[in-house]
Fold these 2 entries.
Entry 1:
Amino acid sequence: MAAQINPSILSADFARLADEAKAVEGADWLHVDVMDNHFVPNLTLGVPVVESLARATDTPLDCHLMIEAPDRWAPQYVEAGAGSVTFHVEAAAAPVRLAREIRAKGARASMALKPATPIEPYEDLLPELDMLLIMTVEPGFGGQAFLDIMLPKIRRTRELISKHGLELWLQVDGGVSASTIERCADAGADVFVAGSAVYGANDPAEAVRALRTQAEASTAKASWACDH
């Protein structure tokens, strides 16, 4: 199974976003962190920047909404050009309805879980989603250290996906780097958000390729992939 690498522009130079997007043109998606200073203690960007970024790059946009009231705002990010929109289940009033609305507008629907949020209560929602995001740091800031205690949660999520026979992507976000990506892939993740590990490198495009190679090598040996 192919691993997907999604560089996070949270670690890019915001004054040069079009150039920073071009610097990782070999990436599968460009991860866009939207923060509102309410759901998380940080403020980043919104719909107008996503619209501009969508015009500036051919790499599809993966928008991660760390915001309150995603039921109200998420559809606007699809209209702005996002190919995938992730909402946090902790903030959503009606996650099934929201996932269906995102899909109906033509984007992939994704649901995110903060580190302390268990996956098990949401097992029945999985068929409504195209991707599930397990946060491997507390959302809100880039550059945080990877939380190894999330690995069992990734494994349990992969087991639920397999149990139901779903073609559901499993994304991890937070502290993903050359030193952690293999553990994430072995646990069951197949989509990897990497911020400083990509944009902090001398050659961001090469960093993307190297991370993908590591993830695919680990996936090839993983028990969950062999059973798939």
Entry 2:
Amino acid sequence: MARRRTAVVRGKALEGVRKGGARARAGLAHLADRIIDIAPRVPVRDLTTLREQFPGLGPEEIADRLVAGAAKATATVGAGVGAAAMMPVPPAMPTELAAEVTGVAAIELKLIAELHEVYGVRPAGTLAQRSTVYLNSWSQERGIEATKPSTVSAAMNSRMKRELRQRIVKRTVRNLPNLMPFLVGAAVGAVMNRRDTRKLAARIRDDLRKVQVPWDELPALPALERPADALPEHALELDMGAGRHRKDDDPG
């Protein structure tokens, strides 16, 4: 009798694990789709705008400022979720976590796009095509050689979306311990996000330097179009200081 009860309990436990795993996979897939959907909505400053906002600075100096601003922005997101986790009853933590993941993704996608501008390797194609390049770069944590036609597709077809979703899910699962500061508080949540954004930026910059085009050799490029339903700038600020240099934004 005891053995039978144990088998029943084990069976129910396994069923619960299977259902929980299915829900988790479905949630991650939905999260990946949200990131894919918001990518074309991220407003990106082109090189002309960046040079106007940071007069007298070269590519590396502007890149340093962008990375410092992005790290500060993702740290703010991490601090918010960390603070929520410290509450006696965390409010809708799965929702909070999803908001953090998508918020960090949007900030880092903007950073990646603007680093492409700074290093003179803007991907060819439409807004949607460039967004696909940046998504690939973000999901693989690598700088994409955007000048190669194979890295830019004419459209986000079902196969590409499926593969991209899988990469985003893998990256999200890998980073969950850092993106989920349960019981660690705002300070640690902020530090984790700041560190990870800087590590991502370092990898991207190393790759972009290999294909960098000097500013004086760049052909005239059209201004970047602004998405019709752009995400709010205040939520994505990397550094809008128009050349101001604040002590807390120093790289390093």
